[in-house]
Structures are given as structure tokens and as C-alpha cells.
């Protein structure tokens, strides 16, 4: 019997990028899943602040040649890989000169919000799914965390639902604390729809364009929701804490033994 497969799509993950405490949780979840016999792969952006030499990233030549369509333009996707320290599993980093080479993450050196953070989000979500297609590796469970992964559940349930690699995938989305106060550009949803075979109503829950809205759209299309912080927005806690038709995992602290997640993955991949 083949191993069950779990794919982590994350904005951050220790030790590569630590924006919130949940970065450490993603690391622990990947390692724990691997140790319990699941086949694990992880995908995250390769922001310019991630040190390529220190973390021993190298390009995956066999995955070259992917272009990602964003706002009617095609952007080349370069994929690099590193082995997670002290674990026999691989982390894939999505790189692009226009979106991720800069030495800041979401704000410039003057703490100004990048105008293209919406486009960067679209590129990352589409790029992650195109990478999995290129793998030819069908995940049983896709666990998304971080607001930059928020379009993945919607895309899998709509534009990618007929792709064989995602035909049986169940989606977990983690709602954590809000980490930015700004809004994405007003045309974010319009641009997220371009060349995506997805309807505007599918992204209606993101119309407020803020951090809460991005979590909302991710959770809306997920099969299961986990809470990754005690500081979750009150509206989201009320809205999704007992969402019908979805499996819910409450926040049990950062020192949890992760058994609640392992039970969730097993129940979704039966």
C-alpha cells in the first residue's frame, strides 16, 4: 500500500523564514508527518531574505520551464530545493526576479506596503499548483498556512479540480493572527481571475481585500480548518469555529504534541 501524501504550502517555515511563531509549527508538522510515515513535500516562496548559501538551496533543473500567468503576463518560475535540517524531506522554494528577489518581504525599507503584494500572492498560489503538476505527485492532503496561500483552496476547488494530481486532494487551511493592516490593490480579485478558469463569486469572500478577508477566502474553500494562534480575528473565530461541513481543529498551543493534526490528516485521507 502506497504512503499517504501531504503537501504543505506555506508563507513561512522555520528555519528559512520566521515571521510569526507558526513558522516553527509548520516545521514541526512537516517533520512529525514524515516521522509517522506520510510522504511529505513543502512549498514556500523564496524571498530575497532567505540565505541561499546558508540553507544550501540549489536549482531543480528538471522542474525548469514553468511560466505562471499573472495579469495577462507570463512570469518565469525558478524552483530551488533544500533538505530540511535533521529530517529527510525536501522544501521547494518558488523564485522569480520580479516578485521575490527584493531584500524586503511585504514592506520596503521605509515600511511602505508593496503595491504588488496581491500579484505576488497570485503568482505564489498559481506557481505552487503548477509546480505540483510538474512533479506529477498527487497529494492526499494539502495544508495551506499563511495569508499568501489563501487562493490555493479556491483554485484547487475550481480551476484545478479536473487536474489528475488534485482530483482526490483534501484541503486544510490554517487561520492565524492577522499580520498586516493594509489592503491589497482594488483590482486584486479581477487579476486573480485572469486565466484561472474561476468565477468572481468564488472569490467574493475576499472582497474586503484585507488580512481577514484573505483568511476568509482560504477557509471558505477548505475541507478542514485549523486555528494557529490565540490571536485569531474574533469575526473569523465566530464564523469558522463551528463551520458546517468542515472538520475543525482548535488551537491547542504551540507546545502541542501535534496529535490533533495527525488525526486530522488521517481522517481526511481515508
From TrEMBL:
One Pfam family named in its UniProt record: Glyco_transf_5
SUPFAM superfamilies (UniProt xref): UDP-Glycosyltransferase/glycogen phosphorylase
InterPro entries: Starch_synth_cat_dom
Reactions performed catalytically: [(1->4)-alpha-D-glucosyl](n) + ADP-alpha-D-glucose = [(1->4)-alpha-D-glucosyl](n+1) + ADP + H(+)
EC number: 2.4.1.21
Enzyme class at the top of the EC tree: transferase
Domain of life: Bacteria
Keyword Transferase: yes
Domain Starch synthase catalytic: from-to ranges: 5-241
Keywords carried by this UniProt record: Glycosyltransferase, Transferase
Identification of the protein by name: starch synthase
Record organism: Parasediminibacterium paludis
Amino acid at each position: 500500500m502506497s504512503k499517504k501524501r501531504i503537501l504543505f504550502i506555506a508563507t513561512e517555515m522555520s528555519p528559512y523564514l520566521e515571521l510569526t511563531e507558526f513558522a516553527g509549527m509548520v516545521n514541526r508538522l512537516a517533520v512529525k508527518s514524515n516521522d509517522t510515515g506520510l510522504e511529505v513535500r513543502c512549498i514556500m516562496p523564496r524571498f530575497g531574505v532567505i540565505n541561499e548559501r546558508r540553507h544550501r538551496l540549489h536549482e531543480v533543473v528538471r522542474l525548469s520551464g514553468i511560466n505562471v500567468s499573472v495579469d495577462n503576463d507570463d512570469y518565469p518560475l525558478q524552483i530551488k530545493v533544500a533538505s530540511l535540517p535533521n529530517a529527510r524531506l525536501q522544501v521547494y522554494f518558488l523564485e522569480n526576479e520580479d516578485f521575490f528577489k527584493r531584500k524586503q518581504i511585504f514592506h520596503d525599507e521605509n515600511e511602505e506596503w508593496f503595491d504588488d503584494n496581491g500579484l505576488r500572492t497570485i503568482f505564489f498560489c498559481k506557481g505552487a499548483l503548477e509546480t505540483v503538476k510538474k512533479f506529477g505527485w498527487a497529494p492526499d492532503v494539502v495544508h495551506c498556512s499563511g495569508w499568501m496561500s489563501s487562493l490555493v483552496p479556491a483554485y484547487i476547488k475550481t480551476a484545478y479540480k479536473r487536474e489528475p494530481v488534485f482530483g482526490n486532494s483534501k484541503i486544510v487551511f490554517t487561520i492565524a493572527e492577522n499580520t498586516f493592516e493594509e489592503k491589497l490593490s482594488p483590482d486584486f480579485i479581477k487579476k486573480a481571475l485572469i486565466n484561472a478558469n474561476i468565477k468572481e463569486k468564488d472569490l467574493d469572500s475576499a472582497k474586503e481585500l484585507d488580512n481577514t478577508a484573505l483568511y476568509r477566502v482560504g477557509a471558505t474553500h477548505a475541507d478542514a480548518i485549523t486555528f494557529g494562534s490565540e490571536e485569531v480575528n474574533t469575526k473569523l473565530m465566530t464564523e469558522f469555529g463551528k463551520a458546517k461541513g468542515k472538520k475543525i481543529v482548535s488551537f491547542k498551543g504551540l507546545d502541542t504534541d501535534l496529535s490533533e493534526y495527525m488525526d486530522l490528516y488521517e481522517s481526511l485521507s481515508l
